[in-house]
Amino acid sequence: MSDKKLGKAGCFYDIYERSATANKDVTHYCPGCGHGVLHKLIAEAIDDFGIREKTILISPVGCSVFAYYYFRVGNIQCAHGRAPAVATGIKRVYPQSIVISYQGDGDLAAIGGNNILQAANRGENITVFFVNNAIYGMTGGQMAPTTLIGQKTTTTPRGRSQINEGYPMKIAELFSALEAPVYIERVALTDPKNTNKVRRAVRKALKTQMENKGFSLVEVLSACPSGWKMSSVQAKEWIDEAMVKHFPLGVFKDRTEEVQPSEAKRHVFNADDLHKKLDIPQNIQASREIRRTASSNIGQNARIIIAGFGGQGILLLGVGLAQAGMQAGYQVSWIPSYGPEMRGGTANCHVNLSDKRIGSPIVSKPDVLIVMNLPSLDKFEDCVQAGGLIVYDTSLIKKSPRRMDVSALGIPATEIADELGNARVANMVMLGALIAETSIIDKEVVFDALPDFIKRKNLISLNKQAIEKGIEFADSLVSVA
Amino acid sequence: MPRQLIKGNEAVVKGAILAGCRFFFGYPITPASEIAEAAAYYMPLAGGTFLQAESEIASINMVYGAASGGVRAMTASSSPGISLKQEGISYCAGSELPLVVIDIMRGGPGLGNIAPEQSDYNQMVKGGGHGNYKLLVLAPNSAQEMCDLTMLAFELADMYQNPAVVLADGFVGQMMEPVKFPQPVKKLEDKPWAIHADKDDEFRLISSIQLEPEILEQHNRHLQAKYARAEQQEVRFEEYQAEDAELILVGYGVVSRILYSAVDNLRAEGLQVGLHRPISLWPFPKRRIAQLAETVDAFLAVELSNGQMVDDVRLAVNGARPVHFYNRMGGMVPSPEEISDHVKKILKA
Questions:
Q1: Whole-angstrom Cα distance, residue B132 to residue B123?
Q2: CB-CB neighbors (< 8 A) of B201 in chain A
Q3: Hey, is B250 helix, strand or coil?
Q4: Statement to judge: residues B161 and B120 lie in one domain
Q5: How far apart are the first and last CA of chain A?
Q6: Closest residue to B23, CB basis, from A92, A118, A338
């Protein structure tokens, strides 16, 4: 038992300077209210455990929004219901601290219901003191999720009805069904015997956090004489007689003996080797100054649309082209059609390779159109620039482009890829054909770039073969002509 | 330093970590999810924390908690998610917490779609939550700027003890471009006002509540003074071919990229058209636009929204010159040719 002197706990400020009331010696709580007693029990426990300097108190909206008037600790006041999220944020920054979320019933069980549920379910190593007084005290006595059936409040003037408002919410029982919480108990601030149980529960909950064992919640049935329109004595009797019937007291969950303490490692800021940790390239990439040859029929800026079915590697073909283009010294951009379109259906992306700053990354009139299915040819053929180029997969597109004012290169990319043993590299066959036809990027630069866009190392050689085959095919057409 | 071909959304995360951010709290939403995914991957590698929150509301409040601890912390989302975060953002501004929010805007209202829009201009630039506050809002138009402006956002947030926002559209987030990553911030300034979980905490308080009207008014005046300082010092913009322009195009984000191309096309036809691109949407470059209004004949504001930024252009021009407006919505994006045609119509009229 504590051998402390009687009087104010050291964890309280000597004078409540922040209080908006005239008298800075007393709390703003009404006579008979449970908050003051609970504050005292918490403050004394903090003193006795010697944890004041590392304690952080979160006060959301409710009568206890002003808990920071009193507690001589790090104080964070926050939005209605959000204390468990705020507590999570600060606890992740200071795992060695003691974080207390002090919440009322409207705050915890109504507006902040999901926040407390999820914090409990994550097993945040925090302590929650949940003051259940069956009413919204701060705003003047409206119904809370814990208001009893038949209880009159300003928003249930004829008494709470289960038909209209449902049943009072049993938080301790509800949260005990979760796996993560370590300690959950419901206590009542009534007679000295019960108050002593509150004291023990407060200490056990804080101890659980100090030992890094995880989430604890103490539900405290507490009087609100003003809200209930009762005397202090009547209010305590009403807790014992009415509230306890619906909210039975006791320990609902206690895993404190069985859980292994977690490691509360202090966060240390470290900026060493960050580029390496972030996969930012360390070395100057091979930038071969090989540009388009005289035979290239594409202007200074190649604006390219690549389109086909989802799953054909359309986006990857574009990324490969942009990656190799960058390594060849071009300004580049790549932009996908994104979202559900990517997951099935058709996919397309826009690539720019340019000698100067790229304006619009979106290609509306491509110089080059690469298409791997018929719908894509139909969709984009008309927008190709006069004098531009269409590269299409004749394995899947059984007709030739209509346009007479553009060049067209048909290549059975899917069949060639099949012969290589994997139809999925048809995209690289297309890439090979494109670079052979346009000389836009030297093939050695593309090969250098392969490891940057083909993440699986064992597939690099297959992709390289596919590019070679594409080049061979395009070159064979030129020699025939 | 070599360049890395990378999505704008991933560049945000690498930039944030290089800026010293080690705490990310987020919630998945297209087209911003790559930010959470990259943060989930890289934050732990950098000794930081990533946590997927139960909601957008929880994530901004987790950032509120982390920022209360004096560390650099962030969250990211897209338009509908940002609407949900507005309550928390107001609290952050009220409590004077520095933190960074990334918004990769998509189509609205309601669920809208996942295609790019710029319709969060009002809710970010004008303040989407309750109360008298402003956010420092930066609008990148490339993957490089997704990194650079994220880093700058952390600096500004700390400097003004206020939330800073990177406001990008779906295209800038999804686009891949080469990025040169700068060297990391090696040491962060201590924040003496923050909760440190140590003995000096006993009089520290993070709070946005103030019951007494006189004091809350003082607090508001203090905030306004801070914003006035930012308006003096943090205006950022870029101009292209603006010196001798008769008509100035105004646009930000991906629109400004389209406008570069439109300016080139129009200049090639001999038309004296230039571009003014606000980089800081708040503070908005209103003095510069007023200055331009002295020499140019007209403005054309182009947006992927229903006329939100154009209001700020009109306020800056203050009736001195006509301010024309062209927009697309719902994920439709104008082509440079479409803009050029519209400009020619204006010039002929």
A1: 13
A2: 53, 56, 73-74
A3: strand
A4: yes
A5: 101
A6: A92
Are B224 and B306 in the same domain? Answer: no
Backbone angles phi, psi at B112, to 5 degrees: 50, -125
Considering the domain architecture, whether residues B308 and B213 belong to the same structural domain is answered as no
Could you report the average pLDDT of every consecutive run of 10 residues in chain A (481 residues)?
68 94 92 96 98 97 95 98 98 98 98 98 98 95 97 97 97 98 98 98 98 98 96 97 98 97 91 96 58 49 92 95 94 82 72 94 95 95 95 96 96 97 96 94 94 94 98 83 44
Amino acid at B277: R
Are residues B151 and B300 both part of a single domain? Answer: no
What is the rounded distance in angstroms from the CA atom of residue A40 to the CA atom of residue A53?
Answer: 17
Domains (ranges, CATH) in chain A? 34-254 (3.40.50.970), 301-480 (3.40.920.10)
* CB distance A319 to B176 below 8 Å: yes
Last residue of a domain, one of B181, B210, B233: B233
> What is the rounded distance in angstroms from the CA atom of residue B142 to the CA atom of residue B178?
9
- Across the interface, of A72, A79, A332, the residue whose CB is closest to B91 is A79
State how far the Cα of A458 lies from the Cα of A463, in Å rounded to an integer: 10
Query: In angstroms, how far is CA A332 from the centroid of its own chain?
Result: 31
Write the DSSP assignment of B46-70 as a string of letters: TT-EEEE-SSHHHHHHHHHHHHHTT
Task: Write the CATH number for B8.
Answer: 3.40.50.970
Nearest to B202 among A73, A277, A326 (CB): A73
B53: CB partners within 8 A, 6+ apart: A85, A118, B25, B26, B27, B59, B62
User: How many angstroms separate the CA atoms of A262 and A250, rounded?
Assistant: 27
B173 and B201 share one domain = yes
Which position has the token pair 């204390």? A83
Scanning A276-305 for CB atoms below 8 A from B yields: 277-278, 280-285
Burial grade of A165 (CB within 10 A; 0-12, 13-18, 19 or more)? middle
Q: Are residues B203 and B315 in the same domain?
A: no
Strand, helix or coil at B78?
coil
Count up the domains in chain B and report the number. Answer: 2
Which single residue is written with the structure tokens 């201590």?
B190
The CATH number of whichever domain residue B305 belongs to comes to 3.40.50.920
Q: How far is B17 from chain A (nearest CA, A)?
A: 8
Residue with tokens 């208001």: A147
Do B227 and B244 have their domain in common? no
Based on the domain organization, do B172 and B308 belong to the same domain? Answer: no
Nearest CA in chain B to A327: B3
Q: Dig out the tokens for A162 from the structure.
A: 């289960």
Residue with tokens 């182009």: B302
A319 contacts on B by Cβ (under 8 Å): 5, 176
Q: Rounded CA gap, A101 and A341, in Å?
A: 44
CB of B253 closer than 8 Å to CB of B281: no
pLDDT at residue A481 in the model: 44
Q: Can you name the residues that pair with B299 across neighbouring β-strands?
A: B248, B323
Q: Which domain holds residue B41?
A: 4-233
Q: Which of B85, B65, B260 is nearest to A75 (CA)?
A: B65
Please give the structure tokens belonging to residue A346.
């058709």
Task: Pick out chain B residues at pLDDT < 50.
Answer: none
Q: What is the DSSP string of A438-471?
A: H--S-HHHHHHHHHHH---GGGHHHHHHHHHHHH
**End residue of a domain, out of B214, B233, B252:** B233
Q: What is the ipTM of this complex?
A: 0.97
Q: What gap in Å lies between CA B84 and CA B215, rounded to an integer?
A: 29
